[in-house]
# Entry
Amino acid sequence: MAQKALIIGAGLAGTCLAHQLLAKGISVKILDQGYNHSSAIAAGMVNPMVFRRMNKSWRLDEFLPEAQQFYLEIEKKLNAKFYHPIVIRRFFSSEQERLLWEERSNEMAYEPYLEKISSADEHNQTANNTFGSGRVKNAFWIDAAGWVQQHTAYFKANGVLLEAQFDSQAWTPSECKYQSESYDFVIFCMGYLQKEEETFAYLPLQQTKGQTLLIESELLPEEESLNRKCFVLPYGQKHFRIGATYEFNNPTLTVTEEGKTFLLETLEALGTYHPKVIDQVAGVRPTVLDRRPLMGMHPNFPGVFIFNGLGTKGYMMAPTLARELAEHITTNKPLNPEINISRFTDKHL
Ligand SMILES: Cc1cc2nc3c(=O)[nH]c(=O)nc-3n(C[C@H](O)[C@H](O)[C@H](O)COP(=O)(O)OP(=O)(O)OC[C@H]3O[C@@H](n4cnc5c(N)ncnc54)[C@H](O)[C@@H]3O)c2cc1C
# Structure
């Protein structure tokens, strides 16, 4: 008989993990309350770079190719379109940043990600341009709302997903039992709401609210994603997403005037584009102070796991991390200590 897993939460973490466990022959059930305030409202951007220090993103060379391949495979599996390659054009905020880009773009390690600055980049006029601009290669965005919607439909149609709230009264962690059904594994993938569920409440998960705007503009370029202070993601037909705010320790879901003003000001700093605001959304990222995910088995309850803390780069990291967790769950392969919750559990015990 196949081993049985119950996943709580059908956001990015839960859906990626479900694919990985199903591929290992595990029988999977997912429970989700039916609304999502992170994976579905995310811009879904995958930017290989951390511009602040002009470094590659953490474990980039592992995460990026696996993510690209994974999303293309899932497109085939679901007969849907999620993956959209995009060039990110970074407008440098200082001469120092430009020099750092020049230096990095001469290194082999950055060759797949940074274009050398051309004279056209130097003088690019799609935004206010004092220090020049550079193009990031191998970036993409995932249609995040589509990802959640299509997965909900797909997993429901296949009898995998049940839409219901997790009932903590019906949960016996010491027996890995939920609503009188025993499971080999129960994996919590509740995003920022994990904080409200007792099993893993001791972990230092933070709730970082983010707001974005959907705008229309005749003046913004549609073939590249502009970046400085904010990102501008082109959707076609003169529509763009502008993001994002970072509002720490804030789990509220209301859009605010302050958020809108802030985003319009960051866009204004890039240039004058006469944006017409069409929509504004808010969501909450599950973040961790050390910027590493929260993964692994509960210290007191064998078979009970968590996959959370995907932070601001969830769409890049989730496919590889889900595979690593699935391997850990099914074969006991050790998790990278940087992501393992034992880094906090050891202090908790
Ligand atoms: C404004 C904004 C912009 C972002 N932009 C990007 C971006 O461009 N690129 C990027 O990589 N990341 C981005 N992110 C971050 C990204 O969205 C997250 O890292 C990722 O989506 C988190 O996924 P998750 O599955 O852990 O959580 P969630 O998406 O929150 O999923 C958790 C699921 O658990 C379910 N759940 C919770 N509690 C219960 C319960 N009691 N019972 C049943 N079900 C429950 C919820 O319904 C939900 O579907 C952004 C986030 C925000 C807010």
Q: What stands out?
A: The mean pLDDT is 97.
